[in-house]
From TrEMBL:
Domain Acyl-CoA dehydrogenase/oxidase N-terminal: 18-129
Lineage: superkingdom: Bacteria
Name this polypeptide is given: Acyl-CoA dehydrogenase
Gene Ontology terms describing biological process: fatty acid beta-oxidation using acyl-CoA dehydrogenase; fatty-acyl-CoA biosynthetic process
Gene3D superfamilies, per the entry: Acyl-CoA dehydrogenase/oxidase, N-terminal domain, Butyryl-CoA Dehydrogenase, subunit A, domain 2, Butyryl-CoA Dehydrogenase, subunit A, domain 3
Signal sequence region: none
């Protein structure tokens, strides 16, 4: 008799992982089960981020996980980083967003574009969670058009003077340092702006209905003076911030798989246990069709991200491939969260269950770091050779 498949891993993706990758997944899964899930609904309700979990995530090596050990990081591969994102977002998108921003949007530009002195100064303390970063690219008017950047930095002797504003910045109110992208006479450049610098202010954004267990802020720069030593010397132009976004988007292809699995699991368990008309809700063909379709879409996303991770580790990944996976996997998760909410009936509208929380969070995930339409057009451009932006 054939062995019954794991309903949450129908293609046995786990068998394709190395022992180290399985250990990483199990460790983060245990952290999510024991430390995140018991409290995250309450934090979401309150609109607060669970600050006390930062030190624990750092201790597990989740911050800057794929950077070399010489900088105090864990030196994991890309697939392990993806699994970290998946298991954290199974808890909440806000948890994955925190790690994604710290790792791929803040530590990565320092590692890839910074001087060795900057790497030695910042990466070890950021890996320990002693210094939190944020990524200042998006502007109030800009959105999907980062080239239309109004924030400017002008040279004045050995310093730079920055003026402008950034909007929708994850971790902004928590951050000790901001990676700020600004127009200069020599193209777009990145600067490390430390909290407490005169003229630099952050204001948290409230009344959110999405990513409530995450800090989202606006950044303001009024004549902010930073030394040239705080400029990232290794890159000029949009390829700098876009390179960071590719790193972060890769993790986002994995994260929503976790959110989808969480919603799918609740839908399966609830429909098995709920009795209507003298039989479990799961005994209805219409319900099984929906659950089967959820499993199909989760399996497709798992295979997509695993192959993407293997290509990233092999150095053959192309940004368009990341766009395709981000588009597919976030749409998959959002659709499953909505359908799971429906299967839970009235119970599905409360944060005592996860689908409505995940659905609300994924409304942000499908928008940030490239909207669904932007990624569709990236794929379209690759296919046709014509830029339709």
């Amino acid at each position: 008799m054939a062995t019954r498949l794991d309903p949450y891993d129908l293609y046995d993706i786990r068998s394709q992982l190395s022992d180290e990758e399985r250990m990483v997944q199990d460790t983060v899964a245990r952290f999510t089960d024991e430390r995140v899930l018991p409290v995250i609904g309450e934090y979401f309700d309150k609109g607060e981020f669970p600050h006390e979990l930062i030190a624990e995530m750092a201790e597990l090596g989740l911050l800057g996980s794929y950077f070399p050990e010489q900088y105090g990081c864990a030196g994991m591969n890309a697939v392990s980083y993806g699994l970290i994102c998946q298991e954290l977002e199974r808890g909440d998108s806000g948890m994955r967003s925190f790690v994604s921003v710290q790792t791929s949007l803040c530590m990565y530009p320092i590692f890839a574009y910074g001087s060795e002195e900057q790497r030695q100064r910042w990466l070890p303390v950021m890996a320990r969670g002693a210094v939190i970063g944020c990524f200042g690219l998006t502007e109030p008017h800009g959105g999907s058009d980062p080239a239309n950047m109004k924030t400017r930095a002008r040279r004045e002797g050995g310093d730079w003077i920055i003026d402008g504003a950034k909007m929708w910045i994850t971790n902004g109110g928590l951050a000790h340092v901001a990676i700020v992208w600004a127009q200069t006479d020599d193209g777009i450049q990145g600067f490390l702006v430390e909290r407490g610098t005169q003229g630099f202010e952050t204001r948290d954004i409230h009344r959110k209905m999405s990513l409530r267990a995450s800090v989202t802020s606006a950044l303001f720069f009024d004549g902010v003076r930073v030394p040239d030593a705080n400029r990232l010397p290794g890159v000029k132009g949009l390829k700098g911030p876009l390179g960071c976004l590719t790193q972060a988007r890769y993790g986002i292809t994995w994260g929503p798989i976790g959110a989808a699995i969480a919603c799918f699991h609740e839908a399966v368990e609830y429909t098995r246990e709920r009795i209507l008309f003298d039989r479990p809700v799961a005994a209805n063909q219409a319900v099984q069709l929906k659950l089967a379709d959820m499993a199909r879409r989760i399996t497709t996303a798992q295979l997509l991200s695993l192959h993407l991770g293997r290509m990233k580790d092999a150095g053959t990944l192309h940004p368009t491939q990341v766009s395709l996976a981000k588009w597919n996997n976030v749409r998959m998760a959002l659709d499953i969260a909505r359908e799971a909410r429906e299967l839970l009936g009235a119970a599905g509208i409360t944060t005592e269950h996860s689908p409505i929380r995940h659905a609300l969070n994924l409304e942000s995930v499908i928008t940030y770091e490239g909207t669904e339409t932007v990624h569709q057009l990236v794929v379209g451009r690759e296919i046709t050779g014509i830029n339709a932006f």
